[in-house]
């Protein structure tokens, strides 16, 4: 005769229906990540309302936070086959060495002229001229550099904060801060500026008016 089986009840300390240990996450669940720091941003000026707005540093386009206008932020390269004459971007514009472009209207952050370009240029950063130019128009830039062995004629006005002339420049120049004419460099025309620095061997032919 087989003995009678008496099961022993298992007593759990956890309340009924509760799992004392969390179940493992399903395999498709991504592991938790640390809270990421905010992406770096930069301030750009809207072309429509002229107010500053903050955009991600890596963005190539954005909407103005004030008027919702579209703002281009990418860099632009102009070459010999370029047909566009108007460029508006908060990025940089480069004119390639083989270009000879006329009637341009450029508004950008930085402008570099390896090739020839003529028109009106507005740069919120640096304008660098690296080759001979005859610019029928005006230049407005925060900083401007005329590099060595270049001869530049600007028929319109030149308006900058600071300018470094290392080659030859002719025009009418207004600088809110300093004009520096380097050794063996030359400027032909009238200058209005807060400070004028002419290194030994540099030349200025024209009138100078000091800003106060």
TrEMBL record:
Region (Disordered): 1-36
Signal peptide: none
InterPro entries attached to this UniProt entry: BacA/B
Family matches, as Pfam families: Bactofilin (PF04519)
Family the UniProt entry places it in: Belongs to the bactofilin family.
Listed name of the protein: Polymer-forming cytoskeletal protein
Organism of origin: Akkermansia muciniphila (strain ATCC BAA-835 / DSM 22959 / JCM 33894 / BCRC 81048 / CCUG 64013 / CIP 107961 / Muc)
Lineage: Bacteria, Pseudomonadati, Verrucomicrobiota, Verrucomicrobiia, Verrucomicrobiales
